[in-house]
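User: Here's a protein and a ligand (2-acetamido-2-deoxy-beta-D-glucopyranose). What would the complex look like?
Assistant: Let me lay out the input and then the predicted complex.
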Amino acid sequence: MLHSLLEFLYMAVVLQQVNHLPTPLTLQDEFTQADSFITERAENVLLNLTNLGPRVVGSEANEVEAVTLILDQVFKVQNEMNQDYFDIEVDLQVVSGQYMHTSLYHGVQNILAKLSAKNNTSTNYLLINSHFDSTPKSPGASDDGAMVAVMLEILRVMANSKGPLEHPIVFLFNGAEEDGLLASYGFTTQHKWAKNCKVIINLDAAGSGGREILFQSISESSWLMNYYSKVTHPFANAVLEELFQFGLVPSATDFRNFRDYGGMQGFDMAYIQNGYVYHTEFDSFKVYPKASLQNTGDNVLSLAKSLGNAPEMRNINNYGNMEHFIFFDFLGWFMVHYTMNTNLIVNILVCVAALIAIVISLCWISKRADLSLLAIVAQFMLTTFIQTLSLALGAAFSILISYVMDVIGCSMTWFSNNWLICGLYFCPVFFFLGILPAGFLEYTKKYALPLGLRIQLFLHSHCLILIVLTISLTFLNIRSAFMFMVAVFFYAAALIGNLITQLHNKGSWFAIPVIVSQIVPFLYFSYVAEYLYFIFIPVTGRNGGASNPDLLIALIAVIFAILLSGFLIPLYLLFRRTRSIILCSLGVAILFMILAIRPIGTPYTPKLAPQRYTVQHANQLYHNADGSIRSNESAIYLYQQDRHIDIAEEVIVKFKAAHETSTVCNNEATCQLDRPSIFYTPNSLWLPVNEPPGIPYERPVLTLTAKTIMNTPNTVRYNYTLTGPDHMMFFIEPKTSAKIINWSFDKTILSRKRLVFTFVHGKNNDAFEFFIDLECHQYTEFGNRVKIYEEFLESLPNYATNVNWLATYDSWLF
Ligand SMILES: *[C@@H]1O[C@H](CO)[C@@H](O)[C@H](O)[C@H]1NC(C)=O
Ligand SMILES: *[C@@H]1O[C@H](CO)[C@@H](O)[C@H](O)[C@H]1NC(C)=O
Ligand SMILES: *[C@@H]1O[C@H](CO)[C@@H](O)[C@H](O)[C@H]1NC(C)=O
Ligand SMILES: *[C@@H]1O[C@H](CO)[C@@H](O)[C@H](O)[C@H]1NC(C)=O
Ligand SMILES: *[C@@H]1O[C@H](CO)[C@@H](O)[C@H](O)[C@H]1NC(C)=O
Ligand SMILES: *[C@@H]1O[C@H](CO)[C@@H](O)[C@H](O)[C@H]1NC(C)=O
Ligand SMILES: [Zn+2]
């Protein structure tokens, strides 16, 4: 009965709320709901934007067509807006520079629209950012076209309103995010408005639609969170912020640039549902759920209006004393947030209160059973030992299964059929949480304490374990400790209720407050587990092949199994058929393991949950100092995105013997030192073929334009120009004894050993000029990337998706 109730809550409330989206507004609604976000308009913009196809930096689609489309929309708003009250200043920034020492960018574009009240003189701006470029092959509907469309509609709604707007809002549509956050860096460090931008709302995606989650926020006080709490559809969690900062999500967003280089405070939000299609050809207009536009539109419009008029914005500095916060939503209904100081106090107070309640309860039990307190404490310690052992065994077993599945070649069985996780990784924990205490209770039957009291000891023990976890994590400065505090809080509430009502003294009645107290934590923890899984399952499809993806999934299961079931499973022991229930969960675990072996456990589903590959048809040329060619070889270069490169093995065998890429280098000395080839990543394959890349493509050309003897002794300046495709990568390495003493790049990295630069050009593809001052001779190597190799790609299994292009590697000696 208890689990029917829980199942009902899960189906009727948790799943509903996780997937809830508002009804999208249409053009008809505009008459009745002026000043509202109209999804239909945003949808039309998104359709046109995605119709341009993939928008890779440097392509016509990105640099010309997308820019024209967005600018047209901005000018249209400018013409139709409330011109008595508002002004829109438009700017197209074309920017070049160096980022993170070795990322060179040239002519990438930012479209800017600054909305301000004619009257107003505030010099503190709100910045809202999204990017219109996409990855190769991807139409970029969710990442990040939808956010561009949302911003354009918000600009329109606000500019047509009557105001008020105290602080100007800068809408930044950036044109180069996917190549390493270049355009937002260009804006932050070089645009005249950047210093005035104090607060950032960054909008991006790691999935296709759903509700956008607030997963990073930093500010000077909790004022920003106060405003976020008022949005219509809150969805946020500080746990994700922490996981993101621990590097568990392989992504980065522009937010980093605004925060670290612009000193801004603000919000980072992203779509996270259906991460399977993220950065693939399936991130299309058709797949993206349109109601998501309404969700984001309502939220960001509300934030734009409130921050645009916030008194707190009047006195605000870049680079203030930034803080992190504890924040989370409850089922999308409301927000909870507090400062880190409050967090410390709350965690300690709740734990102390729970401890006191446990001690009082132990005293009662001793009085009731007519045993010495010492005897009860001893019994309690023994119970705690059994409970700890059960948890440890459950966790160990779950983790063991994750290794077994991996070793037998069945990792990621839950990739498409997510429900397998239940049986594979939750059930073992449930099983041990039940079987050990059941055995213990059976064995100690003849002791003086009645069953009800002994079960209460188990509940107390579980609470004690959670208290220890909460306190330890709090002192380790792990913000996610609040999750354990929540579990302690609700149990302590039930316990105090029991003590006050004396229900704990009346047989099995204590179970009623406990069950009631578990409803809210059950709803909350299963809600969080649900979306953590839909974030992390797709992530395992692009996390590389190095680590065991089942381990991560098992760890999440262990934590949530403990949070969800620790206070519920002991209650089952009150009933007679305990052992059958427990054996049933073991049965389920075993059944699921059998099921998980293919075909149900086949990880991939065509189009819906595809396997990712990155494939290049590559050619590398090594030039001698006199310009002649020393070596010329072609291959298919493939690198793995998840644990299952084995699935493509047949194809690989058909395409000649595979070499690990370490054999690519033909200059042994340099290869073994630091492999100066772009064709080297761990777990990648190099499949030599005779055919060079077929489609005409641009090769990089590096020309030495001047060689000047400098005044400094033994120093020669080499001037170069580099021309070629829009994405290039190059290595610079002086020959043996020579030393680079100056150059046009970042001077602070002159002493680095491995000098690999990436070069991206957007609008301009004029020759890139640079110089190097050397104390002797030098040796330079260059590589680049460009598009497609059909035959190999078509022979990949149909559940695969791949990002592919042509790549060439040229090496010159000078
Ligand atoms: C989308 O493109 C079509 C065809 O070019 C055009 O008629 C329409 O006005 C565009 N809509 C928007 C919102 O840009
Ligand atoms: C600008 O402010 C003045 C008073 O400060 C007011 O009289 C005027 O109506 C305002 N103009 C607009 C367009 O709101
Ligand atoms: C700017 O706008 C705010 C809110 O509408 C208003 O209170 C303030 O007086 C305005 N400032 C100026 C200089 O007009
Ligand atoms: C490299 O070799 C291929 C044949 O394998 C040839 O077609 C191509 O022209 C060569 N490239 C250069 C630059 O010589
Ligand atoms: C070489 O590059 C430097 C720095 O860009 C420039 O000042 C110099 O004129 C160049 N020399 C020649 C000969 O082009
Ligand atoms: C490096 O070269 C630049 C450009 O010629 C020059 O301005 C700068 O002073 C040089 N730096 C050093 C340390 O020689
Ligand atoms: Zn993005």
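Summary: Confidence is low (pLDDT under 50) at residues 658-676, 777-798.
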